[in-house]
Write the C-alpha coordinates for this entry.
Amino acid sequence: LKRDPKYAQLTSEHVAFFKQLLGSESAVLDGVTQDAGEDLESYNSDWMRKYRGHSNLVVRPGSTEEVSKILKYCNDNMLAVVPQGGNTGLVGGSVPVFDEIVINLARMNEIRSFDDVSGILVADAGVILEVADNYLGERKHIFPLDLGAKGSCQIGGNVATNAGGLRLLRYGSLHGNILGIEAVLPDGTIVDDLCKLRKNNTGYDIKQLFIGGEGTIGIITAISILCPQRSNATNVAYFGLESFEKVQQAFREAKGQLGEILSAFELMDGRSQNLYHTASGNRLPLEAEHPFYCLIETSGSNSEHDQEKLEAFLEHVMGEEIVSDGVVAQDQTQIRELWGCREGVPEHLGHWGGVYKYDLSIPINELYALVEETRAKLSEAGLIGETDEFPVVDVVGYGHMGDANLHLNVPVRRYDKTVEKALEPFVYEWVSKRSGSISAEHGLGIQKKPYIGYSRSETMIKLMKQIKSLYDPNGIMNPYKYI
Ligand code: FAD
Ligand code: MLT
Ligand code: ZN
Protein backbone atom coordinates (compact mmCIF):
# COMPACT_ATOMS: atom_id res chain seq x y z
CA LEU A 1 0.00 0.00 0.00
CA LYS A 2 1.39 3.42 -1.01
CA ARG A 3 0.43 6.91 0.08
CA ASP A 4 -1.82 8.42 -2.59
CA PRO A 5 -0.08 11.55 -3.94
CA LYS A 6 -3.45 13.16 -4.68
CA TYR A 7 -3.64 14.12 -0.99
CA ALA A 8 -1.85 17.28 0.09
CA GLN A 9 1.01 17.20 2.60
CA LEU A 10 0.29 19.05 5.82
CA THR A 11 1.91 22.47 6.07
CA SER A 12 2.27 25.03 8.83
CA GLU A 13 -0.45 27.14 7.14
CA HIS A 14 -2.90 24.26 7.47
CA VAL A 15 -2.01 23.87 11.13
CA ALA A 16 -2.42 27.61 11.68
CA PHE A 17 -5.94 27.41 10.22
CA PHE A 18 -6.97 24.64 12.64
CA LYS A 19 -5.41 26.39 15.63
CA GLN A 20 -7.25 29.58 14.83
CA LEU A 21 -10.53 27.75 14.23
CA LEU A 22 -10.45 25.63 17.36
CA GLY A 23 -8.85 28.22 19.61
CA SER A 24 -8.04 26.19 22.67
CA GLU A 25 -4.61 24.55 22.86
CA SER A 26 -5.95 21.14 23.88
CA ALA A 27 -8.09 20.97 20.73
CA VAL A 28 -5.11 20.66 18.38
CA LEU A 29 -2.23 18.23 18.80
CA ASP A 30 0.39 19.42 16.42
CA GLY A 31 3.46 17.51 15.35
CA VAL A 32 4.03 19.64 12.25
CA THR A 33 5.19 22.96 13.63
CA GLN A 34 6.28 21.62 17.00
CA ASP A 35 7.41 18.41 18.66
CA ALA A 36 4.30 16.66 19.94
CA GLY A 37 6.42 14.10 21.77
CA GLU A 38 4.62 10.89 22.67
CA ASP A 39 1.22 12.59 22.65
CA LEU A 40 0.30 11.61 19.11
CA GLU A 41 1.14 7.94 19.67
CA SER A 42 -2.15 6.88 21.25
CA TYR A 43 -4.11 8.42 18.35
CA ASN A 44 -1.90 6.68 15.81
CA SER A 45 -2.01 3.14 17.14
CA ASP A 46 -5.01 0.89 17.57
CA TRP A 47 -6.24 -1.06 20.57
CA MET A 48 -4.56 -4.29 19.45
CA ARG A 49 -1.24 -2.54 18.72
CA LYS A 50 -1.48 -4.12 15.30
CA TYR A 51 -1.95 -1.04 13.11
CA ARG A 52 0.05 2.15 13.34
CA GLY A 53 -0.29 5.38 11.39
CA HIS A 54 1.95 8.44 11.19
CA SER A 55 -0.38 11.38 11.59
CA ASN A 56 1.18 14.62 12.70
CA LEU A 57 -2.09 16.32 13.51
CA VAL A 58 -5.05 15.51 15.73
CA VAL A 59 -7.98 17.93 15.84
CA ARG A 60 -10.63 17.73 18.53
CA PRO A 61 -13.70 19.76 17.55
CA GLY A 62 -16.16 20.85 20.20
CA SER A 63 -19.25 21.40 18.06
CA THR A 64 -20.97 20.29 14.86
CA GLU A 65 -20.17 23.67 13.30
CA GLU A 66 -16.48 23.11 13.98
CA VAL A 67 -16.63 19.64 12.42
CA SER A 68 -18.27 21.22 9.39
CA LYS A 69 -15.57 23.89 9.04
CA ILE A 70 -12.78 21.35 9.50
CA LEU A 71 -14.16 19.00 6.87
CA LYS A 72 -14.87 21.76 4.37
CA TYR A 73 -11.30 23.03 4.72
CA CYS A 74 -9.86 19.51 4.36
CA ASN A 75 -12.03 18.84 1.33
CA ASP A 76 -11.07 22.14 -0.33
CA ASN A 77 -7.39 21.44 0.35
CA MET A 78 -7.36 17.70 -0.41
CA LEU A 79 -6.34 16.75 3.10
CA ALA A 80 -7.28 13.18 4.03
CA VAL A 81 -8.90 12.54 7.43
CA VAL A 82 -9.73 9.69 9.84
CA PRO A 83 -12.75 10.07 12.12
CA GLN A 84 -11.91 8.67 15.53
CA GLY A 85 -14.02 7.90 18.59
CA GLY A 86 -12.65 5.93 21.52
CA ASN A 87 -10.18 4.11 19.27
CA THR A 88 -11.35 0.68 20.45
CA GLY A 89 -12.23 -0.63 16.98
CA LEU A 90 -10.82 -4.06 16.15
CA VAL A 91 -10.19 -3.86 12.40
CA GLY A 92 -7.71 -0.99 12.17
CA GLY A 93 -10.36 1.46 10.91
CA SER A 94 -9.87 4.18 13.50
CA VAL A 95 -6.19 4.98 12.97
CA PRO A 96 -4.48 6.64 10.03
CA VAL A 97 -2.62 4.52 7.52
CA PHE A 98 -0.17 7.27 6.51
CA ASP A 99 -0.42 10.91 7.58
CA GLU A 100 -4.19 11.45 7.52
CA ILE A 101 -5.47 14.05 9.99
CA VAL A 102 -7.20 12.46 12.99
CA ILE A 103 -10.56 14.08 13.81
CA ASN A 104 -11.29 12.90 17.32
CA LEU A 105 -14.81 13.40 18.72
CA ALA A 106 -13.98 13.17 22.44
CA ARG A 107 -14.83 16.81 23.18
CA MET A 108 -18.35 16.47 21.78
CA ASN A 109 -19.71 14.74 24.83
CA GLU A 110 -23.02 16.33 25.86
CA ILE A 111 -26.30 14.56 26.37
CA ARG A 112 -28.75 16.76 24.47
CA SER A 113 -32.08 15.44 25.69
CA PHE A 114 -33.92 12.46 27.12
CA ASP A 115 -37.64 11.75 27.26
CA ASP A 116 -38.54 9.16 29.88
CA VAL A 117 -41.93 8.46 28.35
CA SER A 118 -40.76 7.63 24.85
CA GLY A 119 -37.28 6.48 25.99
CA ILE A 120 -35.63 8.58 23.30
CA LEU A 121 -32.11 9.83 24.01
CA VAL A 122 -30.40 12.48 21.89
CA ALA A 123 -26.66 12.82 22.48
CA ASP A 124 -23.41 13.98 20.93
CA ALA A 125 -21.37 11.34 19.15
CA GLY A 126 -18.45 11.64 21.57
CA VAL A 127 -20.38 10.54 24.67
CA ILE A 128 -18.71 7.44 26.15
CA LEU A 129 -21.06 4.45 26.01
CA GLU A 130 -20.82 3.79 29.76
CA VAL A 131 -21.53 7.45 30.55
CA ALA A 132 -24.66 7.30 28.39
CA ASP A 133 -25.75 4.07 30.06
CA ASN A 134 -25.17 5.44 33.57
CA TYR A 135 -27.14 8.57 32.69
CA LEU A 136 -29.97 6.35 31.47
CA GLY A 137 -29.64 4.08 34.51
CA GLU A 138 -30.41 7.03 36.79
CA ARG A 139 -33.60 7.44 34.75
CA LYS A 140 -34.53 3.71 34.85
CA HIS A 141 -33.54 3.12 31.24
CA ILE A 142 -30.76 1.28 29.47
CA PHE A 143 -28.67 1.92 26.37
CA PRO A 144 -29.71 -0.87 23.97
CA LEU A 145 -26.05 -1.84 23.38
CA ASP A 146 -23.41 -3.09 25.78
CA LEU A 147 -19.89 -4.27 25.14
CA GLY A 148 -16.59 -4.90 26.88
CA ALA A 149 -15.10 -1.59 25.67
CA LYS A 150 -17.96 0.49 27.16
CA GLY A 151 -15.63 2.47 29.41
CA SER A 152 -13.81 4.03 26.43
CA CYS A 153 -15.79 3.57 23.20
CA GLN A 154 -18.07 6.39 22.06
CA ILE A 155 -21.65 6.09 20.91
CA GLY A 156 -20.69 7.70 17.58
CA GLY A 157 -18.04 5.00 17.10
CA ASN A 158 -20.56 2.34 18.06
CA VAL A 159 -22.94 3.60 15.40
CA ALA A 160 -20.18 4.02 12.80
CA THR A 161 -19.22 0.35 13.29
CA ASN A 162 -22.81 -0.83 13.88
CA ALA A 163 -21.52 -2.61 16.97
CA GLY A 164 -23.53 -5.65 18.08
CA GLY A 165 -22.39 -6.55 21.56
CA LEU A 166 -23.67 -8.67 24.37
CA ARG A 167 -27.44 -8.13 24.26
CA LEU A 168 -28.29 -7.89 20.59
CA LEU A 169 -30.46 -10.97 20.90
CA ARG A 170 -32.74 -9.01 23.23
CA TYR A 171 -32.58 -5.41 22.00
CA GLY A 172 -31.78 -5.84 18.31
CA SER A 173 -29.33 -4.02 16.08
CA LEU A 174 -28.54 -0.30 15.92
CA HIS A 175 -30.10 -0.32 12.46
CA GLY A 176 -33.42 -0.65 14.31
CA ASN A 177 -32.73 1.38 17.45
CA ILE A 178 -31.17 4.47 15.94
CA LEU A 179 -33.99 6.87 15.05
CA GLY A 180 -31.96 9.76 13.75
CA ILE A 181 -28.51 11.01 12.96
CA GLU A 182 -26.77 14.34 12.65
CA ALA A 183 -23.71 14.05 10.46
CA VAL A 184 -21.32 16.19 8.47
CA LEU A 185 -20.39 15.43 4.88
CA PRO A 186 -16.86 16.08 3.57
CA ASP A 187 -17.95 19.31 1.87
CA GLY A 188 -19.13 20.66 5.21
CA THR A 189 -22.86 20.05 4.68
CA ILE A 190 -24.61 19.32 7.96
CA VAL A 191 -27.03 16.43 7.50
CA ASP A 192 -29.80 17.28 9.91
CA ASP A 193 -31.73 14.05 10.33
CA LEU A 194 -31.93 13.90 14.11
CA CYS A 195 -35.42 12.49 13.89
CA LYS A 196 -37.12 11.37 17.09
CA LEU A 197 -39.88 9.33 15.53
CA ARG A 198 -40.30 5.59 15.81
CA LYS A 199 -42.04 5.49 12.43
CA ASN A 200 -41.10 7.61 9.47
CA ASN A 201 -41.60 6.16 6.01
CA THR A 202 -40.78 9.19 3.92
CA GLY A 203 -38.38 8.09 1.23
CA TYR A 204 -34.92 6.59 1.44
CA ASP A 205 -33.65 6.00 4.97
CA ILE A 206 -30.31 7.68 4.41
CA LYS A 207 -29.10 7.51 8.02
CA GLN A 208 -28.70 3.75 7.57
CA LEU A 209 -25.69 4.42 5.34
CA PHE A 210 -23.86 6.04 8.26
CA ILE A 211 -24.68 3.11 10.56
CA GLY A 212 -21.82 0.70 9.90
CA GLY A 213 -20.31 3.08 7.33
CA GLU A 214 -17.03 3.17 9.33
CA GLY A 215 -16.44 6.87 8.77
CA THR A 216 -16.12 6.61 4.99
CA ILE A 217 -18.88 9.03 3.94
CA GLY A 218 -19.11 11.54 6.76
CA ILE A 219 -18.72 12.21 10.46
CA ILE A 220 -21.57 11.40 12.82
CA THR A 221 -21.91 14.27 15.30
CA ALA A 222 -25.06 13.23 17.19
CA ILE A 223 -27.60 10.43 17.36
CA SER A 224 -31.10 9.88 18.61
CA ILE A 225 -31.78 6.41 19.89
CA LEU A 226 -34.68 4.46 21.35
CA CYS A 227 -33.77 3.14 24.80
CA PRO A 228 -35.74 0.45 26.62
CA GLN A 229 -36.78 0.56 30.28
CA ARG A 230 -34.16 -0.96 32.57
CA SER A 231 -35.35 -4.29 33.96
CA ASN A 232 -35.82 -4.48 37.71
CA ALA A 233 -34.17 -7.85 37.86
CA THR A 234 -31.06 -9.29 36.27
CA ASN A 235 -29.93 -12.85 36.82
CA VAL A 236 -26.90 -14.61 35.44
CA ALA A 237 -25.92 -18.27 35.12
CA TYR A 238 -22.62 -19.77 33.96
CA PHE A 239 -22.33 -23.42 33.03
CA GLY A 240 -20.03 -26.05 31.54
CA LEU A 241 -20.85 -28.47 28.72
CA GLU A 242 -19.02 -31.36 27.12
CA SER A 243 -19.63 -30.71 23.41
CA PHE A 244 -20.78 -28.08 20.94
CA GLU A 245 -23.77 -30.33 20.20
CA LYS A 246 -24.83 -29.82 23.82
CA VAL A 247 -24.27 -26.06 23.56
CA GLN A 248 -26.81 -26.01 20.74
CA GLN A 249 -29.28 -28.08 22.76
CA ALA A 250 -28.86 -25.72 25.72
CA PHE A 251 -29.53 -22.71 23.48
CA ARG A 252 -32.71 -24.33 22.16
CA GLU A 253 -33.86 -25.10 25.70
CA ALA A 254 -33.04 -21.58 26.91
CA LYS A 255 -35.14 -20.03 24.16
CA GLY A 256 -37.99 -22.39 25.02
CA GLN A 257 -37.89 -21.94 28.79
CA LEU A 258 -36.57 -18.40 29.24
CA GLY A 259 -37.55 -16.83 25.92
CA GLU A 260 -39.24 -13.64 27.11
CA ILE A 261 -36.62 -12.82 29.77
CA LEU A 262 -33.47 -14.03 28.00
CA SER A 263 -31.11 -11.08 27.43
CA ALA A 264 -27.79 -12.78 26.60
CA PHE A 265 -26.57 -16.21 25.56
CA GLU A 266 -22.79 -16.15 25.27
CA LEU A 267 -20.33 -18.92 24.43
CA MET A 268 -16.74 -19.39 25.60
CA ASP A 269 -14.65 -22.45 24.82
CA GLY A 270 -12.57 -24.05 27.55
CA ARG A 271 -9.33 -22.76 26.06
CA SER A 272 -10.51 -19.13 26.08
CA GLN A 273 -11.46 -19.54 29.74
CA ASN A 274 -8.11 -21.14 30.62
CA LEU A 275 -6.21 -18.31 28.97
CA TYR A 276 -8.44 -15.77 30.72
CA HIS A 277 -7.65 -17.48 34.02
CA THR A 278 -3.89 -17.59 33.33
CA ALA A 279 -3.63 -13.98 32.15
CA SER A 280 -5.97 -12.37 34.70
CA GLY A 281 -5.27 -14.54 37.73
CA ASN A 282 -9.03 -14.64 38.37
CA ARG A 283 -10.45 -18.00 39.35
CA LEU A 284 -13.02 -19.67 37.14
CA PRO A 285 -16.51 -20.23 38.58
CA LEU A 286 -16.65 -24.03 38.22
CA GLU A 287 -14.33 -26.53 39.91
CA ALA A 288 -13.77 -28.93 37.02
CA GLU A 289 -12.70 -28.03 33.48
CA HIS A 290 -15.18 -28.31 30.61
CA PRO A 291 -14.64 -28.06 26.85
CA PHE A 292 -17.35 -25.36 26.59
CA TYR A 293 -18.97 -22.77 28.83
CA CYS A 294 -22.06 -20.63 28.35
CA LEU A 295 -23.21 -17.51 30.13
CA ILE A 296 -26.92 -16.78 30.23
CA GLU A 297 -28.42 -13.53 31.42
CA THR A 298 -32.09 -12.90 32.07
CA SER A 299 -33.67 -9.48 32.51
CA GLY A 300 -37.22 -9.26 33.73
CA SER A 301 -39.52 -7.52 36.13
CA ASN A 302 -39.41 -9.95 39.07
CA SER A 303 -36.08 -11.17 40.42
CA GLU A 304 -37.41 -14.08 42.46
CA HIS A 305 -39.58 -15.31 39.65
CA ASP A 306 -36.73 -14.98 37.13
CA GLN A 307 -34.25 -16.69 39.44
CA GLU A 308 -36.69 -19.54 39.97
CA LYS A 309 -37.07 -19.90 36.22
CA LEU A 310 -33.31 -19.83 35.69
CA GLU A 311 -32.74 -22.43 38.42
CA ALA A 312 -35.50 -24.64 37.00
CA PHE A 313 -33.89 -24.32 33.57
CA LEU A 314 -30.50 -25.32 34.96
CA GLU A 315 -32.01 -28.24 36.85
CA HIS A 316 -33.73 -29.41 33.68
CA VAL A 317 -30.66 -29.19 31.42
CA MET A 318 -28.48 -30.84 34.06
CA GLY A 319 -31.08 -33.58 34.56
CA GLU A 320 -31.13 -34.21 30.82
CA GLU A 321 -27.30 -34.23 30.85
CA ILE A 322 -27.14 -31.36 28.39
CA VAL A 323 -25.19 -29.28 30.88
CA SER A 324 -22.47 -30.85 33.07
CA ASP A 325 -22.28 -28.29 35.86
CA GLY A 326 -23.42 -24.73 36.51
CA VAL A 327 -23.89 -21.83 38.93
CA VAL A 328 -26.43 -19.03 39.30
CA ALA A 329 -25.07 -15.73 40.64
CA GLN A 330 -26.43 -14.92 44.10
CA ASP A 331 -25.63 -11.20 44.19
CA GLN A 332 -24.27 -8.27 42.16
CA THR A 333 -20.65 -9.16 42.93
CA GLN A 334 -21.14 -12.65 41.54
CA ILE A 335 -22.94 -11.27 38.51
CA ARG A 336 -19.89 -9.09 37.80
CA GLU A 337 -17.52 -12.03 38.33
CA LEU A 338 -19.42 -14.25 35.93
CA TRP A 339 -19.64 -11.51 33.31
CA GLY A 340 -15.92 -10.88 33.86
CA CYS A 341 -15.18 -14.39 32.57
CA ARG A 342 -16.80 -13.42 29.29
CA GLU A 343 -16.15 -9.70 28.92
CA GLY A 344 -12.55 -10.05 30.13
CA VAL A 345 -11.58 -12.48 27.36
CA PRO A 346 -10.60 -9.96 24.61
CA GLU A 347 -8.38 -7.91 26.91
CA HIS A 348 -6.58 -10.88 28.47
CA LEU A 349 -5.98 -12.69 25.18
CA GLY A 350 -3.61 -9.84 24.35
CA HIS A 351 -1.40 -10.81 27.33
CA TRP A 352 1.16 -12.73 25.24
CA GLY A 353 1.78 -9.93 22.71
CA GLY A 354 -0.93 -9.82 20.05
CA VAL A 355 -4.07 -11.49 18.72
CA TYR A 356 -5.33 -12.32 15.24
CA LYS A 357 -9.06 -11.73 15.47
CA TYR A 358 -11.84 -12.99 13.22
CA ASP A 359 -15.41 -11.88 13.83
CA LEU A 360 -17.69 -14.15 11.84
CA SER A 361 -21.31 -15.04 11.21
CA ILE A 362 -21.59 -18.77 10.57
CA PRO A 363 -24.60 -21.11 10.31
CA ILE A 364 -24.98 -22.13 13.95
CA ASN A 365 -24.52 -25.89 13.56
CA GLU A 366 -21.04 -25.37 12.07
CA LEU A 367 -20.03 -22.44 14.25
CA TYR A 368 -17.34 -24.20 16.26
CA ALA A 369 -15.97 -26.47 13.52
CA LEU A 370 -13.88 -23.57 12.21
CA VAL A 371 -12.02 -23.24 15.52
CA GLU A 372 -11.07 -26.92 15.44
CA GLU A 373 -10.01 -26.83 11.80
CA THR A 374 -7.95 -23.69 12.31
CA ARG A 375 -6.22 -25.19 15.32
CA ALA A 376 -5.44 -28.36 13.35
CA LYS A 377 -4.07 -26.30 10.46
CA LEU A 378 -1.74 -24.23 12.64
CA SER A 379 -0.64 -27.33 14.56
CA GLU A 380 0.25 -29.18 11.39
CA ALA A 381 2.24 -26.15 10.27
CA GLY A 382 4.21 -26.38 13.54
CA LEU A 383 3.18 -22.87 14.60
CA ILE A 384 1.55 -23.57 18.00
CA GLY A 385 3.53 -24.33 21.11
CA GLU A 386 4.20 -23.47 24.72
CA THR A 387 7.63 -21.91 24.32
CA ASP A 388 8.83 -18.66 22.79
CA GLU A 389 10.01 -20.20 19.55
CA PHE A 390 6.37 -20.82 18.54
CA PRO A 391 4.52 -17.67 17.48
CA VAL A 392 1.05 -19.01 18.34
CA VAL A 393 -0.11 -19.53 21.93
CA ASP A 394 -3.43 -21.22 21.13
CA VAL A 395 -6.56 -21.04 18.94
CA VAL A 396 -9.74 -20.17 20.81
CA GLY A 397 -13.41 -19.47 20.09
CA TYR A 398 -16.00 -17.45 21.96
CA GLY A 399 -18.77 -15.08 21.04
CA HIS A 400 -22.42 -14.31 20.77
CA MET A 401 -24.00 -17.76 20.43
CA GLY A 402 -27.43 -16.12 20.45
CA ASP A 403 -26.56 -14.31 17.20
CA ALA A 404 -24.53 -17.15 15.60
CA ASN A 405 -21.52 -14.80 15.83
CA LEU A 406 -18.19 -16.53 16.47
CA HIS A 407 -15.02 -14.75 17.56
CA LEU A 408 -12.19 -16.94 16.36
CA ASN A 409 -9.05 -15.64 18.09
CA VAL A 410 -5.44 -16.63 17.70
CA PRO A 411 -3.33 -15.17 20.53
CA VAL A 412 0.30 -14.84 19.48
CA ARG A 413 3.63 -13.91 21.03
CA ARG A 414 4.30 -11.59 18.09
CA TYR A 415 2.52 -10.61 14.87
CA ASP A 416 4.03 -12.88 12.24
CA LYS A 417 3.53 -13.02 8.46
CA THR A 418 3.74 -16.85 8.41
CA VAL A 419 0.85 -17.09 10.87
CA GLU A 420 -1.15 -14.48 8.96
CA LYS A 421 -0.65 -16.37 5.70
CA ALA A 422 -1.81 -19.61 7.30
CA LEU A 423 -4.98 -17.87 8.52
CA GLU A 424 -5.88 -15.64 5.58
CA PRO A 425 -7.60 -16.19 3.25
CA PHE A 426 -8.23 -19.69 4.74
CA VAL A 427 -10.68 -18.37 7.36
CA TYR A 428 -12.52 -16.14 4.88
CA GLU A 429 -12.80 -18.94 2.29
CA TRP A 430 -14.17 -21.29 4.93
CA VAL A 431 -16.82 -18.78 5.95
CA SER A 432 -17.70 -17.81 2.39
CA LYS A 433 -18.26 -21.47 1.42
CA ARG A 434 -20.94 -21.60 4.10
CA SER A 435 -22.51 -18.28 3.03
CA GLY A 436 -21.46 -16.70 6.32
CA SER A 437 -20.17 -13.18 6.88
CA ILE A 438 -16.49 -12.24 7.27
CA SER A 439 -17.56 -9.40 9.52
CA ALA A 440 -20.49 -9.95 11.86
CA GLU A 441 -20.10 -6.85 14.04
CA HIS A 442 -16.63 -5.27 13.92
CA GLY A 443 -16.65 -3.97 10.34
CA LEU A 444 -14.00 -4.26 7.65
CA GLY A 445 -11.58 -1.40 8.37
CA ILE A 446 -8.19 -2.08 6.88
CA GLN A 447 -7.88 -5.65 8.12
CA LYS A 448 -10.55 -7.02 5.81
CA LYS A 449 -10.15 -4.60 2.93
CA PRO A 450 -8.81 -7.25 0.53
CA TYR A 451 -11.51 -9.74 1.53
CA ILE A 452 -14.85 -7.92 1.12
CA GLY A 453 -15.51 -10.08 -1.96
CA TYR A 454 -15.88 -13.14 0.27
CA SER A 455 -19.06 -11.65 1.71
CA ARG A 456 -20.36 -9.27 -0.96
CA SER A 457 -21.03 -9.73 -4.68
CA GLU A 458 -19.45 -7.53 -7.36
CA THR A 459 -22.78 -5.79 -7.85
CA MET A 460 -23.03 -4.91 -4.16
CA ILE A 461 -19.45 -3.64 -4.08
CA LYS A 462 -20.12 -1.51 -7.16
CA LEU A 463 -23.18 0.03 -5.50
CA MET A 464 -21.11 0.79 -2.37
CA LYS A 465 -18.47 2.50 -4.48
CA GLN A 466 -21.15 4.62 -6.17
CA ILE A 467 -22.41 5.74 -2.78
CA LYS A 468 -18.88 6.49 -1.61
CA SER A 469 -18.14 8.68 -4.61
CA LEU A 470 -21.48 10.45 -4.36
CA TYR A 471 -20.90 11.51 -0.75
CA ASP A 472 -17.13 11.83 -0.83
CA PRO A 473 -16.09 12.64 -4.42
CA ASN A 474 -12.57 13.67 -3.38
CA GLY A 475 -12.09 10.52 -1.32
CA ILE A 476 -10.81 12.35 1.77
CA MET A 477 -12.84 10.32 4.31
CA ASN A 478 -10.93 7.47 5.93
CA PRO A 479 -8.98 6.48 2.80
CA TYR A 480 -7.14 3.18 2.21
CA LYS A 481 -9.79 1.35 4.25
CA TYR A 482 -12.37 -1.08 2.94
CA ILE A 483 -13.79 1.07 0.17
P1 FAD B 1 -13.27 3.91 16.98
O1 FAD B 1 -12.51 2.68 17.26
O2 FAD B 1 -12.61 5.17 17.31
O3 FAD B 1 -13.69 3.92 15.44
C1 FAD B 1 -14.24 2.81 14.81
C2 FAD B 1 -14.61 3.17 13.36
O4 FAD B 1 -15.66 4.12 13.35
C3 FAD B 1 -13.49 3.81 12.58
O5 FAD B 1 -13.60 3.41 11.23
C4 FAD B 1 -13.73 5.29 12.71
O6 FAD B 1 -13.23 6.01 11.61
C5 FAD B 1 -15.24 5.35 12.75
N1 FAD B 1 -15.79 6.42 13.60
C6 FAD B 1 -15.62 6.60 14.93
N2 FAD B 1 -16.35 7.64 15.36
C7 FAD B 1 -17.01 8.12 14.28
C8 FAD B 1 -17.92 9.19 14.08
N3 FAD B 1 -18.33 9.98 15.09
N4 FAD B 1 -18.39 9.40 12.83
C9 FAD B 1 -18.00 8.62 11.80
N5 FAD B 1 -17.14 7.61 11.93
C10 FAD B 1 -16.65 7.36 13.16
N6 FAD B 1 -17.76 -4.64 18.94
C11 FAD B 1 -18.93 -5.27 18.87
O7 FAD B 1 -19.64 -5.13 17.88
N7 FAD B 1 -19.37 -6.08 19.88
C12 FAD B 1 -18.64 -6.28 21.00
O8 FAD B 1 -19.04 -7.03 21.88
C13 FAD B 1 -17.40 -5.60 21.11
N8 FAD B 1 -16.65 -5.73 22.22
C14 FAD B 1 -15.45 -5.12 22.28
C15 FAD B 1 -14.67 -5.32 23.43
C16 FAD B 1 -13.42 -4.74 23.54
C17 FAD B 1 -12.60 -4.96 24.77
C18 FAD B 1 -12.94 -3.93 22.46
C19 FAD B 1 -11.59 -3.27 22.55
C20 FAD B 1 -13.71 -3.72 21.33
C21 FAD B 1 -14.96 -4.33 21.22
N9 FAD B 1 -15.77 -4.16 20.08
C22 FAD B 1 -16.98 -4.79 20.03
C23 FAD B 1 -15.32 -3.39 18.90
C24 FAD B 1 -16.17 -2.16 18.63
O9 FAD B 1 -16.15 -1.84 17.24
C25 FAD B 1 -15.76 -0.94 19.35
O10 FAD B 1 -15.50 -1.19 20.70
C26 FAD B 1 -16.70 0.27 19.25
O11 FAD B 1 -17.93 0.07 18.63
C27 FAD B 1 -15.98 1.35 18.50
O12 FAD B 1 -16.22 2.59 19.09
P2 FAD B 1 -15.07 3.68 19.20
O13 FAD B 1 -15.68 4.91 19.70
O14 FAD B 1 -13.90 3.16 19.95
O15 FAD B 1 -14.69 3.86 17.65
C1 MLT C 1 -16.49 -9.47 22.14
O1 MLT C 1 -17.54 -10.02 21.85
O2 MLT C 1 -15.88 -9.72 23.19
C2 MLT C 1 -15.97 -8.42 21.22
O3 MLT C 1 -16.59 -8.40 20.00
C3 MLT C 1 -14.50 -8.29 21.18
C4 MLT C 1 -13.80 -9.45 20.59
O4 MLT C 1 -14.22 -9.96 19.56
O5 MLT C 1 -12.78 -9.87 21.11
ZN1 ZN D 1 -18.37 -9.54 20.02
User: Anything to note?
Assistant: The first helix runs from residue 12 to 22.
